Inverse folding.
């Protein structure tokens, strides 16, 4: 399966879903004009990934998936889609795959940190909170 | 009360690019005033949600140049005040008023719960609205939202939302 790479723009984040290494990453700033148009293809890609890769793994040892979220800002429409994406990872987890979710945040940025805490609580799954050095 | 310093004043149609321009202007102005990241992010979030609400939900009055979108950012002694207005079909005002009144009744924990309830329950509309903007503004600013609906004609109202981001204890 081909990786999914989306270049960042002024309003949208960088996306890199790498099926070969089982690493998935969304980073930067997210305020898309058309949140549905930007995020639906990511969800579709992950659904295809489940069908084409995860469901075909019949080994005893399932996959170890890493999801890195390195967001500096996201609007409320984005938060709805982040939740939908995370719920898909929870579905992968319920099927025996190991999931690690890393939530990176600027150590001075309480808003992003608290958003991560809230989302983690919502999906009832612990995140690794990783502070990064501020550059603002 | 001493009148505050008007940092941004916008009146006229609001494109997505214009929203980006106003946000960049706000960021550089608040940086010039040496506001820390917490204040800047709170103002940023409130400004994004309120301007995107106008962009997504305003009802433009056909054939009229009056009652266009309006936005101002004013620096007061103890707060940054954001005021935004847009025309709206009156049939939409009841639901909006109910949501505003509900968020004003909730404390921080209540807003978190309500946010959770809406994000898990409501779908994102084709316009990109997730029904979360108003809750997010209240959650981030931790202040009550002031609002008015002024009559334009039988069909339309002019909705104004006033948001306060307090500076006390947050000047970092």
């Amino acid at each position: 399966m081909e990786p999914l790479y989306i270049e960042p723009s002024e309003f949208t984040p960088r996306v890199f879903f790498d099926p070969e290494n089982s690493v998935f990453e969304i980073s930067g700033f997210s305020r898309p004009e058309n949140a549905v148009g930007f995020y639906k293809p990511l969800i579709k890609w992950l659904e295809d990934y489940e069908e084409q890769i995860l469901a075909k793994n019949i080994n005893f040892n399932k996959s170890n998936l890493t999801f890195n979220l390195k967001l500096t800002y996201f609007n409320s429409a984005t938060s709805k889609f982040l939740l939908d994406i995370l719920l898909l990872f929870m579905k992968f987890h319920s099927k025996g795959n190991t999931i690690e979710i890393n939530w990176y945040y600027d150590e001075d940025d309480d808003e992003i940190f608290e958003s991560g805490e809230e989302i983690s609580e919502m999906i009832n799954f612990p995140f690794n909170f990783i502070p990064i050095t501020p550059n603002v | 009360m001493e009148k505050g310093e008007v940092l941004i004043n916008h009146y006229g149609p609001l494109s997505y690019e214009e929203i980006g321009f106003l946000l960049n202007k706000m960021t550089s102005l608040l940086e010039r005033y040496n506001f820390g990241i917490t204040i800047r992010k709170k103002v940023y979030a409130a400004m994004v949600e309120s301007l995107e609400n106008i962009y997504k939900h305003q009802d433009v009055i056909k054939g009229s140049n009056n009652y266009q979108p309006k936005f101002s950012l004013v620096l007061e002694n103890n707060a940054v005040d954001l005021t935004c207005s847009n025309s709206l079909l009156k049939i939409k005002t009841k639901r909006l008023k109910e949501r505003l009144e509900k968020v004003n009744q909730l404390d921080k924990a209540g807003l978190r719960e309500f946010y959770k309830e809406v994000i898990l329950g409501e779908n994102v509309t084709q316009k990109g609205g997730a029904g979360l903007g108003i809750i997010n503004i209240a959650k981030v600013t931790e202040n009550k939202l002031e609002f008015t609906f002024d009559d334009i004609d039988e069909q339309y109202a002019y909705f104004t939302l006033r948001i306060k981001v307090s500076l006390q204890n947050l000047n970092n």
Q: What stands out?
A: The interface with chain A takes residues 16, 20, 36-38, 41-42, 44-45, 48-49, 52, 112, 115-116, 119-120, 124, 126, 128-130, 132-133, 135-136, 140, 172 of chain B (CB under 8 Å). Residues 114 and 120 of chain B are 10 Å apart (CA to CA). The radius of gyration of chain B is 16 Å. The first strand of chain B starts at residue 5 and ends at 11.
